[in-house]
Amino acid sequence: MHESSRRTRGKVRWSKLYSFSCLRPHTSDPDSAQELIGQPGFSRVVFCNEPQLHKRKPYKYTSNSVSTKKYTAVTFLPKALFEQFRRVANLYFLLTAALSITSLAPVKPLTLIGPLVFVVGISMLKEAVEDWYRFLQDLNVNNRTVKARAENGLFVDKLWREISVGDVVKVKKDEYFSSDLLLLSSSYEDGVCYVETMNLDGETSLKIKRSLEATLHLNEDAKFSVFKATTRCEDPNPSLYTFVGNLEFESKIYPLSPTQILLRDSKLRNTDYVYGAVIFSGHDTKVVRNSTMSPSKRSRLEKKMDKVIYLLFSMLLLISLVTSIGSSVVIKSDMSQWWYLSLEDSDPLFDPSNPSKSGFLQFIRALILYGYLIPISLYVSIEIVKMLQARFINKDKKMYDEATCKSVQARTSNLNEELGQVEIILSDKTGTLTCNQMEFRKCSIAGFSYGGNINEVDIAASKRMNTDSEAYRSSIDQSDTTSQSLEMSEFSVVDIIAQQAILRGHENADNSNARNSRLSDVRKESVIKGFNFRDDRLMNNQWIYRSDFFYMTMFFRVMALCHTGIPVEDGQTDKLKYEAESPEEVAFLIASQEFGFQFFQRTQSLMTLKELDPSSGKQVKREYKLLNLLEFSSSRKRMSVIVRDEDGKIYLLCKGADSIIFDRLADNGGAYLESTTSHLSNYAEDGFRTLAFAYRALELAEYEQWNSIFTQAKTTVGPEREELLEHATEMIEKELILLGVVAVEDKLQKGVLECIDKLAQAGIKIWLLTGDKKETAINIGFSCSLLRQDMKQFHVCLSKETESKKPAEVAHRHWHIQITRLVKKHTGKTTLAIGDGANDVGMIQEADIGVGISGMEGMQAVMASNFSLPQFRFLERLLIVHGHWCYKRISKMVLYSVYKNIAFGLTLFYYEILTNFSGDSLYDDWYMVVFNVFLTSMPVISLGVFEQDVSSDVCLQFPSLYRQGLRNIIFSWSRVVGWILNGIVAASVIFLANVYIFSAAAFRQEGHVADITQFGAIMYTCIIWTVNCQIALIITHFTWIQHLFIWGSVLLWYIFALAYGALPPDYSQRGFNILTESIGAAPLYWVATFLVTIAALLPYFTHIAVQSLLSPMDDHIIREMKHGKKDVTENQMWLREQRNSQRSTQVGFSARVDARIRSFKEGLSLKRISIYNKSATNTPFYKSWTSSPLFS
């Protein structure tokens, strides 16, 4: 049976089956297109089957190897260094490192050069590792194999990177095309092949390609021994949907069109093999041309961090200037009188004869000394944190897709915190939001709706309302007694009761009322792929018992006959599978099969069905002669077939957009138009795609007269052919009889509705970019809950001039990049673009954050993206959880780093003031080195990796927390200035307190006062304790790792002081035995450390206490509720807070539920009034009163 099916398919000549130009050149005027050959932009020459001619100029083209990596072995060092020193802080430290080798440096050169080399080296290593992974991905693609013709005439395996222009390759079923190929022949007789372009446009529907008739005979390996041809065509360009060229073969010239071109990364499907000649290779292929060089992206927070560094640098210049001026004044006025200092005129830093020069040199010295105001370790800490954050994102089990065995991948870690500030999402539709798998969901036949009337929105609204609908059951039952009123009813509270019973798990729900058998349990997944329909009135052949079975028979015949599909044996069941150009046709064929009309055979002019005969209830075989096929197009918006049945009756069966079909109805053909229109509105609100079905019986004479006109139009050659064909179809596609409408669902990927709902509640605006027609775009908008019926819609169309130049689909796809650019430019908001095909690459790269879908087999979008997801639904957790966390973590890291460096650096400045700007350093050189690199770096890293203001579950329960990132609350300028002031206060308290305690009295029992070494070590200890306790106050989610790093850093200072002090004096210098012999033995040292630390932290502690009491943030309230376990003990309050956080959203599933609840309440209110009025009018008092003379 399988081989028979294969042979049958091979005999169908699609070129004869179609009427219009779907298999012809797409250019409006082929002759004018051919005139472009040889002109600029159309100068490429390819010698087919002669690749050796392309090894030398002028016909030497690029190889087939593709690279997406940023660096090479030669360019890595200069480019990576440039990336590092684009950062103003690194540039400053490079300057100070250079100055450290001069006599002006107050510290040893190693203490400045070492940290800079360490920081830059770590960052460059991270860049190298990320680029190495990109290289491995490229290697995997370039090392795929394909059969290519070798010099000996045999087809042998070649690596993709070894393929060159002119090669003839043989691609087998389910293999990818290695390059852009000219289709020469296929396993089908007429050179047709099926191509899946999911990697290019995300669509799973198969595209039909067809070779030239001149090359059809090249269908065996041996026949290529004498094949030689020349192709002249357009130069490499990114347009996926156009191609202009010609083929010179056997002294004849044949025009080429996109129909003959097989694009790289698309896949051969349902065809045993094809032969093709390589036209474009490697970076010249259209799919790679769509992938521009990956731009270097920086987050908004990182850019703002540069401005913070500028602010700190301004502070550095200011205090350096103060030091310089102060030093000049002291040298000029007082220093000449200090004879005991024994100043020498040769010391330029202290030259009383030239105080201005000394002041300038002191300014340079101060720039080096106060450099600790700039957090040199911040950049490397952020690099490490971002890499670890990316690892945690990649390893999140809740973002792992079992169906594809893929997880979320952060392909770059530079934009982690940007995920927490996304305000606009630009999303592709097909393959991103939808599976491109149509499901038959509902239908309306002869004015009756089938397939259930309750959807997810109704159930959610009913569940939330917890409506006590039982009180109205009796009254509704009394008002709905006839079978016709039952079938025509679109909504009743009984339906809600049934669904509530399902939700509560009541087994007797189906028995509560027989009428509820027509309900579709929307929560269940479809058992049959493509068919998600449940209605006992039609299923199991029950439709034959209805009075309107004639309309149903014709309705099912339209589904089974009006298409271009081909049956394929399943092999496991007696059901057939189908292949067609569009997934809608596949869904219709599966549905017709389930209703008893199985389409099981097709030839060039004959279509065979196994029909259910209503009179006998048995299945019979019927043949229909296919007379004409008027296929669907975006301009016609309809498709028709004209068939003759076994009784000789001729029918035109038509399906199309409802507006098109309704305009072509006969005067008596719209008997059910009003009810059908109402059903259409309901289906559209549910987000279903709808098509109307109609038919017309034709007389033989009328058909023959029309067919002669139509045949003449088909055989016309020239630009007027399309117009003549359109006129002929208008003549026959009229006077139709309406049968009904169908509703198919462009099945959304799992979790898309919930994801969009959460994103909308988080304050993110979602733009859906699609190349579909307007009606389809609106339907998918409803399906995704981006649109509601009560919304006002605006339709913006391209100009007529633009529409005439290119198909609408092409125009929409080329507008993706421009729309992204315009949104970024005019809104100034952080923009995320998500897509799955090569046509989305430009949009992905243009947006601030690019996300590629890796769920299927496409890799172009993934390779161009910053993050890859198996499915769209994981975007919810990526943004609302990880994005929120990363934004707050990095923000806190930067603010804390600014604080600790100001707290440390300003003590040096204060000491300069105390010592009359001596230019000396308060701390030992190595104290200053280990402060940023070792003693305070690990707690910062733990903050950036493990901090959670709330848990992931709470993030998802309260998506409005994400708005903190949108408003940039955590990293606002007020916060930056506040933390700078906190650092200034801490430094002032630490310095003044230590001066007060230790300068006026002895701190050891022997009466010794603290010298500069001891004073510096004591103050350093206070700073270490203060900054580490400060980070403990910032952290809201402690792990053992954070405790280890924070308190371990404090302990590490004492270990370092012991180890450093134990070194010989030649190495330890001032730090020799500082802890064991000097400060450690003094009780005042330990007491002062404790008191000074508390005093330095008291202002911040007071601030957060007052803020929590008077103006708490959302996360403060939620943490307090969680800490008090009010989410358990007072669950209603917890749910109320959740609901309050959702009220501001206008789109998403929750917004639709809210709108439906309002509609329910209005309906129930009207129902109560109706019931009350009916009850009142039936009372004896009312009847006697209205019958009295007074009332009359």
Automatic annotation (TrEMBL):
It catalyses: ATP + H2O + phospholipidSide 1 = ADP + phosphate + phospholipidSide 2. ATP binds at residues 428-430, 585, 632, 655, 689, 770-772, 839-840. This is Phospholipid-transporting ATPase. InterPro entries: ATPase_P-typ_cyto_dom_N, ATPase_P-typ_P_site, ATPase_P-typ_TM_dom_sf, ATPase_P-typ_transduc_dom_A_sf, HAD-like_sf, HAD_sf, P-type_ATPase_IV, P-type_ATPase_N. The active site is at residue 428. Its main location: membrane. It comes from the Eukaryota. Its EC number is 7.6.2.1. It is an enzyme of class 7 (translocase). Pfam families: Cation_ATPase (PF13246), PhoLip_ATPase_C (PF16212), PhoLip_ATPase_N (PF16209). Mg(2+) binds at residues 428, 430, 836, 840.
